[in-house]
Amino acid sequence: MAGFSGGRKSILPGVAGRKSIENNHAMMVEVTAENPALEDNPISREMFEAAAKVGVDFILNVVTNSSRKIVQVCAGDYRQAWEAGIAASAEMYHLPLAEKADAALVSSGGFPRDINIYQAQKALDHADHAVKKGGTIIWAAECSEGYGEECFRKWMDQAAKPEVNIERIKEKFVLGGHKAFAVSKVAAEKEIILISSLSRAETENIFAKKMNSLQEAVEYLEEKYYGNYKSYILPQGSLTVPIVESK
């Protein structure tokens, strides 16, 4: 929601109260840019304001690779050190794309990133950036612990269609409900096929179609697009951030 982690997030949400966090995260409905915007992102902007008001003298942030090993340490001024970390992170995790595709095959990256839908959703969000409106996202995430959060589950249970959650979050922001909004926002524009341990009913409850294997999903794509389609493969979807290059 805020673009990159670290830096100003040490204060908000780091040591902020629940109400402050909810008020900040409520602005997620205003984040329309698909790239991890910073200056134009209202959530990030307010985080900077909070850090400036509190007065942060020093930060120490680290950048890790896909194996969670530290590859760079950035320390000093809370903004300058953080920007140095952004540069290193972007080099590893940003995926420049010339255009969006008809489909994407994305994995949340295995345990613990796909322990439940609540955690695995990040990969769905990233795949959303790479796929055209009306396209298809094949999403592989084990989700052995189900939905992962009760409020999230309740919102999905109570919504007959994605638009219900999209409008509901605008009326009142609730932590947990924000994940329902995030999933619904993708489902409103794209077809989601989920390969997981969730039941068919649980899968359809998040506006996705259940399939039992990647092979079944690929065969479905071939039939849907008559073999004429472009797709991207994102094996580390929770970490890979597709960036469509402006022309």
TrEMBL record:
Query: What InterPro entries does the record point to?
Result: LarA-like (IPR048068), LarA-like_C (IPR043166), LarA-like_N (IPR018657), LarA_C (IPR048520), Ni_dep_LarA (IPR047926)
* Record-annotated LarA-like N-terminal domain positions: 1-30
Q: Name one Pfam family in it.
A: Lar_N
Q: Which GO terms describe its molecular function?
A: lactate racemase activity
Please identify the protein, giving its name as recorded.
Answer: Uncharacterized protein DUF2088
Q: Which residues form the Lactate racemase C-terminal domain?
A: 99-237
Query: Where on the tree of life does the source sit, at the highest rank?
Result: Bacteria
